[in-house]
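Late entry, written up from scratch paper. The run itself happened at the end of the previous shift, but nothing got recorded in the book at the time, so transcribing now.
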Amino acid sequence: MSLDSFLVDVLACPCPSHSPLRVRETDVECEQCATRFPIRNGIPVMLIDDATPGPRGIGAVIGDSR
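Output as recorded:
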């Protein structure tokens, strides 16, 4: 999936740290917590209810032992 580079630059995870996102094939993924947000019809859906939480949950730093 190709997204406009400006859009990718301004999007951020809604977690408290507002981390940047990386584009994957069918979704965008938070670089900090690995929460994934679907891309539907070329538009990232940045709603928590539609997100797939990362392994430690939305907003949790990967590798954080807390």
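Helices lie at 5-10.
(Scratch paper discarded after transcription.)
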